[in-house]
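To whoever is on call:

I kicked off a structure prediction for a single chain this morning and the downstream step that reads the tokens threw a length-mismatch warning. I double-checked the sequence; it's 243 residues and nothing unusual in it as far as I can see. Pasting both halves so you can look.
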Amino acid sequence: MLSFTLLTPSLNARPAVLTSAASRASAPHMMAWKSDTSIGSALRSSRDTLGIGQVPSNLIGNVVPTSIGKELTPASVAAPAAVTEAEVLECQAKWANAIASISSVYLEEGDFVAAAGEAAGELYGYGHHNVLFKPTKATKHPFRATGAEAMSYFVGAEAMKNDEFKGEDAGFAINGGKGWSKVVFTNHQIDLNGETATAMGSYDFTCATTGDVATVEYTFGYKRCADGKPRIYLHHSSVPYSA
């Protein structure tokens, strides 16, 4: 798989650019979606219908309790640690790497649906908290409140056997079949606010087939989850305005 390395700027230079590395072998292994049962059903349907590889069981399992046999009281629960700028940049690097990796698996005729599910569980907070997701290329269904709806957007309604979203979801993570080879983030600003953080800027997507670059504008919000990891709870994406 393709891998992206993070070039961390000095704190005085706000814009942060994430670039790619040539080696696919260093792509990080990502966790799976753990508790959104709707995505589990959709993944099983996709696997059974398309004959793609075995979907890891932890994509459809339940969240493991943080404490067994002990009732947690407000006094015994520590406040979540603040999300740091370094963690925001790391989340962006993982997101960029995931898009390129899913495209690579797709172009190599691998199980890109399972790859997307694993990446999504690491990146998005479905099953942990509410997620406010407004994708770039969504018309009839501009807001994706569930993991299954997000998966349809990223890998395509056909792959997910989702008739409701057919004609709208071509699979953004696979660029409608052309794939993406690289994603570069440039942050306009990052705002840190305790257990949440927000980043706004633009990212450039390089088509794996033509080499064309598409620029999209974003707002991402990250929230600390119960397992200690920051995940996306807000994602708004749009193409630049053209008069």
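Update from on-call: the warning came from a stale cache, not from the record. Cleared it. Sanity check on the structure: The two ends are 38 Å apart (CA to CA).
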